[in-house]
LuxR-family transcriptional regulator (Sphingobium indicum), 347 residues
Amino acid sequence: MFEQPLWHGFLEKLRARTGAAYAGLAFRPIDEERIVELHAGPAGPLHPDRLFNEKQGRDPLPYRRMREARVYTLDELIEPKDAALQSYRREWLDPLRITAFRSVRVAEASGMDAWLSCAGGREVGPAVGALLTALVPHLRIALRSFVAFEREKFRSSVTSEAFGRLNSGWLTLDARCRIVDMTAHLEPLFQRSSVLRRGRYDRLMPSSPAVDRELTALVKRFAEDAEARPKAINLSRDPMIDMLVRPIQDRSPSVQSPPVAIAYISGDRWSQADRCGQLVDLFGLLPSEARLAWAIAQGMSIGEAADDLGLTVETARNYSKKIYAKTGARGQAELVRNILTSVLALA
C-alpha cells in the first residue's frame, strides 16, 4: 500500500501465481461514488464496475450487492438473461479472451469497499477462487491500515498547510546541530531570508555568529540533559523571525544520529513596511498610525515606539487613541492581540 502504483507488486505476484491474464484491485474511497482501479496485466474493462454497461450511461451497481468475502464468477456478475450485459460481454470481454473471472468483495469497518479480481481463460477456476477467499482477511487488514494511513496523511497535510499559512515550521537537530528532519515550509524560509541556512553536512547555520554559538551550546546541553529548559531566540526584527529550541526527550537508540533538539521557527514573510501597509488596508489606519500600531504590537511601549519613530510622546498618545478607535481595541494588550491574531497572520 506504500508502493507507486499502489499494490502493484502484490497484483503482479497474484497474476503470476494464478496464471491469470489480469489481476485487479478496485476500491471505493469512504463516502465517495468513484471507483479507484488498480491492475496488473492488460488494461481493459475487466472489473465489475466496468462490467455493468457504463457505455449505456447507467450503473445498476450490482457489484455493490456482492456479499462480502464470497467469490463470484463471471456468469454470476453478468446475468445470462440480461441482453445489454451480454452484449457488453461479447463486445469487450470476448476480444480480450476473457472467458473466466473470479472476484471477491472485501469490506473494511470504516466503510471502504474493495474488490479483488482475477480474469483470463480456463486457468481462472475454483483454485483461484479459493486463493481469493484465503486472501480476504489479509486484504481487510491492509485496507484498515491504508485507511488509517490516508487519514493521518490528510491530517498531516492540513496541519502542514496551517503551518505554511502562519509561516511556521519545525526542524530536528542532532548533537552536532545537523538537520535530521524538517517541515517543507522551512526550505522557502531559508531561501527567502539570510538569517538561517543549511550549511555543509546539513548543519543549521544562523547568520549571526553570536546566535550560532548560542545554538551550538544549547544543543550540546540538550544532548546531555533531556530535561533542560527550552530557550527562545530572536533571529530577526525585520521581518520578525523567532526560534524556540527545546530538547527531545523520546530518543530512538536505533538511529545513527538521533535528534536531540527540536526548533520551532516562526518567521514573518513580510517586512515591517509591508505589514504597515496591510494595517492601513485592514483597519483604515493612516500610515503614521500603522507604523505606531506595528511597533506596539512588537512589544514596545508608547515611549519606546515614539522614540523609535521620531515622534513626541504626546503625538504618539494621540495616534494611539485613534488606533484603538479604528481597531476596536480597549487597551494596549487588546491592540496587540487584535493585530497579531488578525488575518495578517494568514496573509
About this structure: The chain is about 40% helix and 20% strand. Residues 126-165 form the longest helix (40 residues). The chain has three domains: 8-157, 166-267, 272-346.
